[in-house]
Amino acid sequence: MISVAEARAHLLSMVQRLDAEEVPLREAASRLLAGPVEARQTQPPFAASAMDGYAVSGPPPAPGTAFEIVGEAAAGHPYEGSVAPGQAVRIFTGAPLPKGADRVVIQEDMTREGDRATVTQDPGPSTHIRPAGGDFAAGTEFASDSPLGARGIALLAAMGHARLPVIRRPVIAILMTGDELRPPGAALDPGEITASNGYGLAAMVEAHGAEARLLPIARDTEESLAQAIDLAQGVDLLLTVGGASVGDHDLVAGALAKAGMDPVFHRVAMRPGKPLMAGRLGEMAVVGLPGNPVSAMVCARIFILPMLHRMLGLPQEGPPVERPLANDVPANGPRQHYMRAERLPDGSVRVADRQDSSLLSVLARADTLVIRPPHAPAAVTGALVPTVNLSDETRQS
Ligand SMILES: Nc1nc2c(c(=O)[nH]1)N[C@H]1C(S)=C(S)[C@@H](COP(=O)(O)OP(=O)(O)OC[C@H]3O[C@@H](n4cnc5c(N)ncnc54)[C@H](O)[C@@H]3O)O[C@H]1N2
Ligand code: MOO
């Protein structure tokens, strides 16, 4: 059995950053830019009025100064002439500043009668002008190593990008296996249970930028598994779920070997997740997750998300955060234990009483995994323990 760290290193070495593809701006949200892009234009493209008022030339006019109104400038409707001393152009927010104008006096500080406008109070020093390029100049670089969010999309739109180069979405096939499994909602015959973890895995990888393909549930026969593995050909990563252990009906490793998979490892000193296996099938990485729902979800959090981050070119997450325990935990056995826990308002973590790897209700309540290294001695309330955040699973930028 290899350690968690060894398994993670193997798994990361099985994938690499994917190629770029170009997508319309409207499809770029939550995608990763493949590299820096440059502003295609200057913003604002021209000096513009920031207020509704009168464009005039010269220093701030004193109260009582009168101007002759020679024209009008509105957003999208420039005034083509120029403004001479003593003249004013009626101007609205967003309009290009006319030639010769040095400032905008806001309309609250002026009064108008026909073609004359007179300053009624000190307009102060502000010019109320947005200079050309005040936001950014053509050629300004935009780079981001996190998924594009609303603010980035708005800026890239302003920079004039109708299409953007983004990292291709990894395609992940998810294959649940087992004669006992029925889809959610289907009636259960004796001995049958509802398949659950594949749906959770799909939600998790989709929240992190992958395209998930949930394959039809395979039966515990070589033919059914071979057929399902065949359906997955061409994806970046195949996740099988179940049938990974040592029982007579655990046929997945055999079926993958028969399909030509080069095994990389089988079994990891972790809990849950001992039967985890991995290999390469042509260009495709394959990870065999244990069938127990919590085992599959925990292994995906610990191993599949880092693989996904590598494929997307995202930085790997930092080291585990240490938090104080809110209750005592016993000494650990030989496998690294990822214990389901809840963060309390004071920042401490309460480890759940029941840690069986079939208990989805406990996992759903948890927001943290407390990491207990192999052979860790008992730890008491208040002791600092390394933790993994589970709420990241549903992050969506
Ligand atoms: N003699 C041994 N038995 C077991 C060992 C062992 O080392 N020696 N390991 C145990 C551990 S740890 C785990 S984890 C399980 C995992 O085994 P498999 O990957 O072969 O999983 P299955 O046997 O197919 O299923 C386990 C359990 O989970 C249920 N299941 C399976 N798929 C799903 C699904 N998609 N949705 C919901 N539930 C699912 C399945 O019905 C079983 O109850 O092996 C131990 N045994
Ligand atoms: O490793 Mo199993 O996943 O403990 O339940």
From TrEMBL:
Q: In which pathway does it act?
A: Cofactor biosynthesis; molybdopterin biosynthesis
Q: Which InterPro entries match?
A: MoaB/Mog-like_dom_sf (IPR036425), MoaB/Mog_dom (IPR001453), MoeA-like (IPR038987), MoeA_C_domain_IV (IPR005111), MoeA_C_domain_IV_sf (IPR036688), MoeA_linker/N (IPR005110), MoeA_linker/N_sf (IPR036135)
Name the Gene Ontology biological process terms.
Mo-molybdopterin cofactor biosynthetic process
SUPFAM superfamilies named in the record: MoeA C-terminal domain-like (SSF63867), MoeA N-terminal region -like (SSF63882), Molybdenum cofactor biosynthesis proteins (SSF53218)
Q: MoaB/Mog domain spans which residues?
A: 173-310
Q: What keywords were assigned to this record?
A: Magnesium, Metal-binding, Molybdenum, Molybdenum cofactor biosynthesis, Transferase
Q: Would you tell me the Gene Ontology cellular component terms?
A: cytosol
**Which SMART domains does its entry note?**
MoCF_biosynth (SM00852)
- Keyword Transferase among record annotations: yes
Instruction: State the reactions this protein catalyses.
Output: adenylyl-molybdopterin + molybdate = Mo-molybdopterin + AMP + H(+)
Task: Say if the entry is tagged with keyword Magnesium.
Answer: yes
Coiled coil ranges (UniProt) are none
EC identifiers of the protein: 2.10.1.1
* Cofactor(s) demanded: Mg(2+)
Instruction: Name the domain of life.
Output: Bacteria
GO MF entries: metal ion binding; molybdopterin molybdotransferase activity
Family as reported in the entry's similarity comment? Belongs to the MoeA family.
Briefly, what is this protein's role?
Answer: Catalyzes the insertion of molybdate into adenylated molybdopterin with the concomitant release of AMP.
Checking PANTHER family in the record gives: GEPHYRIN, MOLYBDOPTERIN BIOSYNTHESIS PROTEIN
What's the protein called, per UniProt?
Molybdopterin molybdenumtransferase
The species this protein was found in: Jannaschia seohaensis
